[in-house]
Amino acid sequence: MTNGQADSGTALLRPAPKRRTGRAWAPAVLRGLLFLILGLFVLYYTLPLFVMIVTSLKTLEEIRLGSLLDLPQAIELTSWITAWESACTGVTCHGLKPYFWNSIVLVVPAVVISTALGAINGYAISKWRFPGSNAIFGLMLFGCFIPFQVILLPMAITLGMIDLAGSVAGLILVHVVYGIGFTTLFFRNYYITVPDELVRAAKVDGAGFLTIFTRIFLPLSAPVIVVTVIWQFTNIWNDFLFGVSFSQGGSQPITVALNNIVNSTTGVKEYNVDMAAAIIAAIPTLLVYVVAGKYFIRGLTAGSVKG
Q1: Nearest to 170 by CA among 251, 115, 116
Q2: CB neighbours (10 Å) of residue 27?
Q3: Which of 91, 156, 173, 240 has the most crowded CB, counting CB atoms within 10 A?
């Protein structure tokens, strides 16, 4: 066979080049359209936050004479200082500062206790099955869907009986009790994906209930702990109904204080102070999602596939 014949045979074996059709631009157009739609949604959801920030940096004169979307002529932080230190002139308003720390004192132990109890409950229900464990888990799951309003009266009576009514400690107990159902659900669904062979092998080596939990399951629990902490932190920090129902005076959380600031002003309505107060109250949850948002998504999907 000559070189010319070999070259022609090789050419016949090569795949023919793909012809570009007239619709090669379609994926790029669809991708651009998708980005445009997503951008419109981002603009729609961030516009209220933009209005709040801009309004909080304006004077009352600028607010009255301009529109909502106008940028401030000069950055004015007086409204932020007023919202933090002394947001209204009435005798019942003292700014957000003491109530902000009330919420910190409330959220930290409530999140820690409910997360710890949920981890132990989920571990026991998923790996140490006992008679009635499924029924107990079902009842706890049912408790997650009971409306807040239904438990207000029984909880108020209970807090009065144990002398915790109107206190931060009482609010901590309320949020721990109401959050155990959710935290148990999160940890149970996560631990159910851990192979049972690990527990059996640890039992053969003489490990007990707490040893297996602390040595095997806790080191594996970082994703679900992040999910639970973010969930509980957001719900407890943003709660208003329990705060206004089970607290009084100086023990109120920041959401109740924010409502008092907005609804108890006299004379000229200070929209800049109201907006600054609302942003101050929302900053912790915004920071949590900005810092740990990606870990929240990872934690939600971590236990979705078994094996």
Answers
A1: 251
A2: 9
A3: 173
In Å, how far are 33, 236, 291 from 105, measured between CA atoms? 47, 11, 21
Of 98, 88, 96, which Cα lies nearest the Cα of 270?
Answer: 88
**CB neighbourhood size of 138 (10 A):** 11
Q: Give 102-143 pLDDT, tens digit per residue.
A: 999 999 999 999 999 999 999 999 888 888 888 888 888 888
Half-sphere exposure of 298 (CA within 13 A, CB side): 10
What is the three-class DSSP state of 5?
A: helix
The token pair that represents 199 in the structure block:
């527990």
Q: At 211, list the tokens.
A: 């040893």
- Looking at domain 97-302, its CATH class is mainly alpha
Domain ranges of the chain: 97-302
| Cα dihedral 143, 149, 150, 156 sign | positive
Identify whether the C-beta of residue 128 lies closer than 8 Å to the C-beta of residue 221: no
Q: Which residue is it, tokens 């229900």? A: 125
Alpha-carbon gap, residue 93 to 259, rounded angstroms? 11
Read off φ and ψ for residue 7, nearest 5 degrees: -65, -40
The tally of CA atoms less than 13 A away on the side-chain side of residue 225 is 13
Task: Give the Cα separation of 300 and 272 in Å (integer).
Answer: 38
The reported pTM is 0.81
Residue type, 75: I
